[in-house]
User: Which sequence fits this backbone?
């Protein structure tokens, strides 16, 4: 035996709280850079591997199965030496002892902790919101509840006419339910669309049989044993066997706050995705970076890349917020929105309308740069416009033909 032989290095312990897309993408990035640095333990509230939450809408619509949207099966965790505790969420973090405790009583020490607790649906706190049949739209269990309701009931009400609400409404209608969407604003998807695009979208969805109550204020959910209807501030009531709340989400920070981490609207992180405790990182919908919170996948992927690099000890990356893009996942309806669609002082709108083909394009230009785009009916140039926005390219030479897309603009440059 060689007396000078060094003992094998003891691997550090990384505990990941949250088995969703943000946390597992961060682990993937870490494994690319430093596959042997940590013993990794993952806790998740749901009894599954990691799945693509963005594709829950096609599962509800019957276009995909749960197996189709799985990103990491239990075999993947085993192959990568990761200990997975699915269906056993962490309920306590002891930062002084550096230990987490799960719902089942399991205690696991950590050298580094990654919080990826996501968000929870905002359930409008009106009377009756706790009745059976009132749910959010957040996970596989919610989809199962909706599919069961579609088999045995008729009337569905979706509260919230944003991206998620319209996808839920489309899926429920595809499953045979009569669906009414209730929205506080005068325009659907009012955070991503301007009024003309919203009007086109509403008309297309109405032609499919969806009903809309706009600028409607929910006063109560009525029912005895189960939800039976929704009552509004004007006194009117509509029948409802199922009420799906899609009126926004709230960052899930209760665990972090109880552990004494600095939280405002969400867990406050710096440009490395590190919290005020240098041993604790956070990514995804539970974080707040420079006053912003996040719900779209593109910024969360970039957060995962940065956090993974820092956990691997390759700390040269910094998270920088960028413009984001939105696409509606409703078959047969093409809609794309990117960047700042509101505009400001000195901005100009370039608009193309083709009512016969139901095509609408609006580009927001500030100086010599494209800052926002709303496309309805023809979205093939959406990623190209998005690149122009992100790269802050000078579009002076393209301006006259910009509305007509990349192909025509490329011809003019050759």
Assistant:
């Amino acid at each position: 035996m060689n007396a000078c032989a060094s003992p094998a290095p003891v691997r550090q312990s990384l505990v990941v709280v949250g088995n969703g897309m943000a946390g597992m993408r961060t682990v993937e990035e870490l494994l690319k850079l430093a596959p042997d640095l940590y013993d990794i333990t993952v806790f998740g509230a749901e009894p599954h591997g990691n799945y693509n939450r963005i594709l829950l809408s096609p599962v509800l619509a019957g276009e995909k199965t749960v197996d189709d949207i799985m990103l990491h099966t239990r075999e993947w965790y085993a192959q990568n030496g990761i200990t997975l505790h699915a269906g056993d969420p962490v309920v306590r973090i002891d930062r002084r002892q550096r230990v987490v405790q799960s719902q089942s009583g399991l205690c696991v020490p950590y050298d580094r902790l990654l919080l990826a607790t996501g968000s929870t649906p905002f359930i409008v706190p009106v009377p009756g919101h706790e009745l059976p049949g009132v749910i959010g739209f957040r996970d596989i269990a919610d989809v199962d509840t909706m599919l069961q309701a579609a088999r045995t009931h008729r009337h569905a009400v979706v509260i919230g006419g944003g991206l998620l609400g319209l996808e839920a409404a489309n899926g429920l209608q595809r499953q045979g339910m009569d669906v009414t969407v209730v929205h506080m604003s005068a325009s659907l998807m009012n955070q991503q669309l301007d009024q003309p695009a919203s009007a086109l979208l509403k008309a297309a969805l109405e032609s499919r049989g969806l009903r809309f109550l706009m600028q409607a204020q929910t006063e109560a959910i009525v029912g005895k044993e189960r939800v039976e209807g929704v009552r509004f501030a004007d006194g009117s009531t509509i029948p409802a066997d199922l009420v799906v709340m899609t009126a926004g989400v709230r960052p899930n920070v209760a665990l972090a706050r109880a552990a004494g981490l600095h939280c405002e609207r969400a867990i406050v992180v710096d440009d490395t995705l590190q919290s005020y405790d240098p041993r604790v990182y956070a990514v995804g919908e539970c974080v707040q970076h420079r006053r912003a919170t996040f719900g779209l996948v593109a910024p969360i992927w970039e957060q995962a890349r940065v956090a993974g690099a820092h956990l691997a000890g390759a700390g040269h990356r910094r998270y920088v917020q960028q413009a984001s893009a939105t696409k509606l996942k409703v078959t047969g309806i093409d809609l794309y929105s990117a960047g700042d669609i509101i505009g400001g002082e000195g901005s100009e709108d370039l608009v193309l309308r083709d009512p016969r083909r139901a095509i609408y394009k609006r580009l927001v230009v500030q100086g010599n740069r494209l800052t926002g785009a709303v496309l309805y009916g023809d979205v093939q140039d959406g990623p190209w416009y998005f690149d122009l926005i992100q790269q802050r390219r000078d579009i002076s030479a393209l301006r006259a033909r910009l509305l007509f897309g990349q192909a025509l603009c490329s011809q003019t440059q050759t």
Remarks:
- DSSP finds ten helices and 27 strands in the chain.
- The CA atoms of residues 149 and 242 lie 7 Å apart.
- The mean pLDDT is 93.
- Residues 297-311 form the longest helix (15 residues).
